[in-house]
Amino acid sequence: MAKIDAFFKLMHDQGASDLHLVSGQPPGLRIRGEIERVKYKILDNDELRGMLYEIAPEQKVKTFEETGDVDFGYEIPGLARYRANFFMQKNGVGAVFREIPSVIKTSEELGLPQVVSKLSMLPRGLVLVTGPTGSGKSTTLAAIIDTANKNRKDHIITVEDPIEFVHQSQGCIVNHREVGLHTRSFNAALRGALREDPDIILVGEMRDLETIRLAIEASSTGHLVFGTLHTSSAAKTVDRVIEVFPANEQAQIRSTLSDGLRAVIAQVLFKRIDKKGRCVALEILIANPAVRNLIREAKTHQIPSMVQTGKRYGMQLLDDAIMELYNKGWIAGEEAYMKANDKSRFRPLLKSAPVDFTDA
Fold it and tell me: What digits encode the pLDDT tens for the residues 99-150?
């Protein structure tokens, strides 16, 4: 048992999502969205480095010493998997670990709308799950992939950095590939995947032009592709994908994306006030013919109106989902206001004037 495993057990027992170990400071746990200090001594740089190197693969240690940061996955059998990031900072080495539960929750257990599960049964196309870091994108995607794994007889390839949720092959054959360990890059893995008879491809993060280009290409050639981005709404997601490309290519990409896109899910995580735990609010865009036409004609600013009138397709605006959680008594008005897109709608919920001076 590695010395650092005691911190992981504490993290698991406390229900924390993240563990922060930084030289020159005591450890910290993120519990229900907030950092709480662990009653422990200030971490010494050499001692912490020794603990971290004990669990890191040799190649990852070498990369860390050359570049100053590295990502990898670590697993404690019977407890959980962890997404690890090592980095250098002023006082020495630091690390953050995100717990990835060993048991994958279903869409029903997560409280996701039924239309989200249906996305797992699409024959082809591009589905994007977006939101800020720590908003539960990986958990949502894991539930969708789990549904596909149980109900389809296909080949699923995941490309991640690092591997997070591990799916045991059920109805499908599932292959997990980790960037830096099993493949050189997202681009290389995607190029290879197109020759590996896949039906479903999960791209852990669409970081750059080439990765986005290959994901769109794969979705247009008969594959079902899932990917993530860091955007705050469905309309901004479409704009972000298109704006990555050079200006002279954007018209063509609009056309290709309008044909290949199937859905965009933008999500935000909230701390519950009625009980311990967190809950998610989703914006859901389903790419029906009218939405495709808006993308093709560069009228993405009209997408929110289309979402608002598309409830029969399973669409919903993020602000409507947030208001529903507030009306249920699950979330505080202040947090609803801070995370909403149209803040004017939520201002009456506040007990005092908003502290977000940027929204003046």
Answer: 998 889 999 999 999 999 999 999 999 999 999 888 899 999 999 999 999 9
pTM over 0.70: yes
CATH label of the domain that carries residue 92: 3.30.450.90
Residue closest to 128 by CA, chosen among 9, 38, 257, 23? 257
| C-alpha span between 304 and 294 (Å, rounded) | 11
For residue 358, is it within any domain? no
Cβ pair 83, 97 in contact under 8 A: yes
Structural domain including 326 reads: 107-349
Number of domains making up the chain: 2
355 SS3 class: coil
Burial 98-134 (b: 16+ CB within 10 A, else e): bbbeeebbebeebebeebbbebbebebbbbbbbbeee
Q: In whole angstroms, give the CA distance from residue 85 to residue 96.
A: 5
Q: What are phi and psi of 338, to 5 degrees?
A: -65, -30
Cβ neighbourhood burial of 322 (10 Å; 0-12, 13-18, 19+): buried
* C-alpha angle 190-263-203 in degrees, rounded to nearest 5: 20
Residue 136: CA atoms inside 13 Å, Cβ hemisphere, count?
24
